[in-house]
Amino acid sequence: MRPATPLGWSRTSHSTGSGHARMPAIRPDTSIKFLKGIGERRAEAFARLGVRTAQDLLWHIPYRYLDASTVTPLLRARVGEEVACVGTVIAKRLMPTRSGLRIFTAVLRDDSGMLECAWPGQGFLDRTIEVGQRLLVVGQVRFYHGRQLNPREFVILSDAEGEADGDSSGRVLPIYRATEGLSHKVIRGLVLRHLDGMIGFARDPVPERVPDSLGLPTLPEALRAVHRPATVEEAEAGRRRLAFDELLDLQLTLSRARQIAKRPRPGAPFVLHRTYTRQLAESLPWPLTADQTRAIRDITADMTAPERMHRLLMGDVGTGKTVVALFAMLLALENDHQAVL
Predict the structure, then answer these.
(1) pTM of the predicted model, to two decimals?
(2) 3-class DSSP state for residue 328?
(3) Gap between the Cα atoms of 332 and 339, Å rounded
């Protein structure tokens, strides 16, 4: 029995001695132009977004989401409510005002009825929104010569003469960075089409016990959640895992840089004479906090060691960072070195 064809690939046969068919598989370095539904032209558009391989496409993470999991029929959108509605544009107009502000309006219709949407100061939408398009709009309903929705966000689900964006209502829609000739709707469809195949080469470099102890998903689970979330909370959990990986990578890079920086040039080991530092401690009109004492102890240990110190002192305004720095400066003065604040 032959294995199933990987998602997004058609079966390709090659003549072999055994007579079996060999199939290409999606690899991280596979050019996206070879993924089904992309081709040369879309690959050129993807290149403008920095997406050139299957791995780049997998890591083209949505920058926001629209919650269409609960869609309100247009007729039931009440004044004062925050709603998400889906409807087809049946009319539009651009209205000038005495102040020079142009207001773009569009009338949407669904099976329940009609509702006017207004975008004050966004006249450029007249070149974007067309009659016949199907829109998802999210915003507050107000009363202005009748019910009117002021969308804070909207997504074109289908063009006037184009293919619909599948079952967009009733789920959370990821919004991707797009470019000319490549809308976020097209990108979303292509990512979903190949997601299962691309997830296969997402290996988690972090031991499973680490994210599990922090209540975070595994890397494959996180990538699936950010691209195909069932709820906004699921998408946020995936984003938290990716943020954890970025911070972990940064900390590992900084730790490596510190180790490398210490090797070629040894530091100047100071001796703790306790002259100026003791005088400062005795002259303070308040006792040092536990955090200040711990910070001074750590900095003193670094400065009396033979390696160079690489340390950042952090704290909120008013937590006493300056006096901690002053102790370090006085330790340098005790060893005939200079310091500046």
Answers:
(1) 0.61
(2) helix
(3) 7
